[in-house]
Amino acid sequence: MPKVTLRASGLATLWLAALIVVLDQVTKQWALETLSLGVPMPIVPYLNFTLAFNEGAAFSFLSDLGGAQRWLFLGLALVISVFLLVWLRKLPASWSCEILGLNLILGGAIGNVIDRALAGKVTDFIDFYIGTWHYATFNVADMAISIGVFCLILHEFWLKPKAETS
Known about the structure:
Layout: H1 14-34, E1 41-44, E2 47-54, H2 68-89, H3 97-119, E3 122-130, E4 133-134, H4 140-159, H5 162-165
């Protein structure tokens, strides 16, 4: 079996995941220093920056477990991150929608892991709304994960070369 080096694998693209982590952490720090909990800062119509904390998963799922979810989600995110690194290692170092998606998901997962490990909760601040209806408040890591999943679906169902599907 040939030896896979960093440069010859998808791991060479990890700078993108690192960039997502930095962007996520910088924007969360800005939100913590600038915004007040629950007080909206209007940006444009339909968009506020509103500081919120999430102890659960997406849409505050399982946020009422009394702290146990911190370790559950931390462990799950770490396992997923290792899985994504192994997946990236098996891919060639050329850019694709698949590699883009994996890096976005990995960067987002690590960004939220940092929050969960240090504070036991994730900092959210991006608040989309229409009238009185508000979408769940989210952050840069959440956006990266969502776009990354979209990229993987796009790759799997529409962009994957025919040779890979047989």
